[in-house]
Design goal:
This is Glucose-6-phosphate isomerase. By secondary structure, the chain is α/β, with parallel strands linked by helices. The chain has 23 helices and eleven strands. Helix content is 49%, strand content 10%. It binds 6-O-phosphono-alpha-D-glucopyranose.
Length: 548
């Protein structure tokens, strides 16, 4: 089905005609109930999408589009464990990882819970031993430093969550995340760490990812230089992987290998043992609280009618902005320092899932899919790129994300922080009219000539749409809900765009080429004739200047 040819899509094009030139100022002025109408809450997590450029009719048509695309059916197929990731012949069952009841999941016939529970138990055991100081290093010391070596989904999720929940962090443990192949990431860390008190978690679903393998090998060499004995590896290395044999080959004993499964996508793996560093930081009970938050969002996503369904509404708003209002990018603006990694996490979640131009059927998509996702801590952005959001003339929908109370409170900080967050979304939405700017300038006593010169610079067009996501506080439960909200949002968008959101073939070509270029970088001139002129010129430069 070409969705753009359907009556539902055509109705939305009519809405677009109506709303394209309607200002948010007027939408608010004409509807005193706008906030009530266009906001929704689940267990304290509130989404306010009243500052999106929609009206009730457009939302109704968007919901019809979701029904037409069979969102509910696809959702049920995912939860039933069907192999909806058909290009890799895999089920998509990260929701099993946060299934907290003792019932089978996804079904009695296909129950994955015994394996999930066994790994949770293994995690709990490790977490308790490390946190209590019972886990000892090769010289008998308690662990003080945990280094997660991983990249992509094996880095971004745990890094986001462990920073987000730093208020709950064990007082005697420090956490580090190493992903970059550049030794400037690992080397300064190794300089300050003590091998006797350092525990490495090598997180890699495939256990073949080059960046992770090289960092893990270097960490292993560093440990061995101090410990001298192979048995020390068992005291300082844990692996999280779906390829236990490869972790075993690396020298990690079986009891230190935590399994994940092919039905857990890398960018959906935080809830598995990939989250071990988070569990070590906040304790296994805290980690399970985060799983419960995600499960609460799962149940809501499965059961709530579409018009009250938070992930569905978020997805539809994004589709509206991308496909009808023409937005090409979207900004994620967390205001809490502790969720500073949210933009990076969502970049992978959204762009690796839906950054595609081919449908499930192998046909070119009939419309544009995922916008470019970017972002930064809100207040930092205010003093940097917000100028462009306010007056740059681009349509850039924003997600403002903030918790009502601070997780690391100091007197005098939180109220101004919240004021800034709310001020920005209001300024973006409502702007400042020429009339308002003129009045301000003349009240400041400017001459008519000065006023005329300054006036064009003081006008804010406004009408920049945003959603504000509020949480009471940054706790494990709320964080679990927040991340699962975005996961399901991405799923719904993928269904409507008819994309398989769970593969990522687009990352392969670069990996292949990097492997092919390695000998040339290392000096093997036999390859030179096969290189394009640019690559060969750049390699010549490396040979002149690099020490590899
Ligand atoms: O966990 P790993 O197998 O090491 O994979 C790490 C990451 O690299 C891949 O190239 C994918 O793009 C990501 O989806 C994945 O999360």
């Amino acid at each position: 089905m070409n969705i753009t040819q359907t009556p539902e899509w055509q109705a939305l094009l009519q809405d677009q005609q109506r709303l394209e030139h309607t200002h948010l100022r007027d939408l608010f002025a004409n509807d005193a109930q706008r906030f009530q109408r266009f906001s929704a809450e689940l267990d304290g997590l509130l989404i306010d999408y009243s500052k999106q450029r929609v009206d009730a009719e457009a939302v109704r048509h968007l919901l019809s589009l979701a029904r037409l695309a069979n969102v509910e059916e696809w959702r049920d197929r995912m939860f039933a464990g069907e192999k909806i990731n058909f290009s890799e012949d895999r089920a998509v069952l990260h929701t099993a990882l946060r299934h907290m009841e003792f019932s089978p999941f996804p079904s009695a016939e296909l129950d994955v819970m015994p394996q999930v529970r066994a790994v949770r138990k293994q995690m709990r055991d490790i977490v308790e031993r490390v946190r209590s100081g019972l886990w000892r290093g090769f010289k008998g010391d308690a662990i003080q430093n945990v280094v997660n070596i991983g990249i992509g989904g094996s880095d971004l999720g745990p890094k986001l969550a462990s920073r987000a929940l730093s208020a709950y962090q064990h007082p005697n443990l420090n956490f580090f995340y190493v992903s970059n192949l550049d030794s400037a990431h690992l080397a300064p860390l190794l300089e300050k760490l003590d091998p006797r008190t350092t525990l490495f978690i090598v997180a890699s679903k495939t256990f073949t990812t080059q960046e992770t393998s090289i960092n893990a090998q270097t960490a292993r060499t560093w440990l061995m230089a101090a410990a001298m004995e192979e048995w020390a590896i068992a005291k300082h290395f844990i692996a999280v992987t779906s390829s236990p044999a490869k972790a075993h080959e690396f020298g990690i004993p079986d009891e230190n290998i935590l399994q994940i499964w092919d039905w857990v996508g890398g960018r959906y793996s935080l809830w598995s043992a990939v989250g071990l560093s988070v569990a070590l930081s906040i304790g296994m009970n805290g980690f399970e609280r985060m799983l419960q938050g995600a499960q609460t969002m799962d149940s809501h996503f499965r059961e709530a009618p579409l018009e009250k369904n938070l992930p569905v509404l978020m997805a539809l708003i994004s589709i509206w902005n991308t496909n009808f209002l023409g937005a090409e990018t979207t900004a994620i603006l967390p205001y809490n320092e502790s969720i500073r990694h949210l933009p990076a996490f969502l970049q992978q979640l959204e762009m690796e899932s839906n950054g595609k131009t081919v449908s499930r059927d192998g046909e070119p998509l009939s419309c544009r899919a995922n916008p470019i996702v970017w972002g930064e801590i809100g207040v930092n952005g205010q003093h940097a790129f917000f100028q462009l959001l306010h007056q740059g003339g681009w349509l850039i929908p924003c997600d403002f994300v903030v918790a009502a109370s601070s997780d690391h409170p100091l007197p005098g900080h939180q109220a101004p922080l919240l004021a800034n967050c709310l001020a920005q979304s209001a300024a973006l939405a409502f702007g400042k009219t020429e009339q308002q700017a003129r009045e301000e300038l003349s009240q400041a006593g400017l001459s008519e000539a000065q006023l005329a010169r300054l006036l064009p610079h003081k006008v804010f067009a406004g009408n920049q749409p945003s959603t504000t996501i509020l949480m009471p506080s940054l706790d494990p439960f709320q964080l679990g809900m927040l991340i699962a909200l975005y996961e399901h949002k991405v799923f719904v968008q993928g269904v409507i765009w008819s994309i398989n959101s769970f593969d990522q073939w687009g990352v392969e070509l670069g990996k292949q080429l990097a492997n092919r270029l390695l000998p040339a970088i290392l000096g093997d001139q036999a390859f030179d004739a096969q290189l394009d002129a640019s690559t060969s010129g750049l390699i010549a430069y490396f040979r002149r200047h690099g020490h590899v």
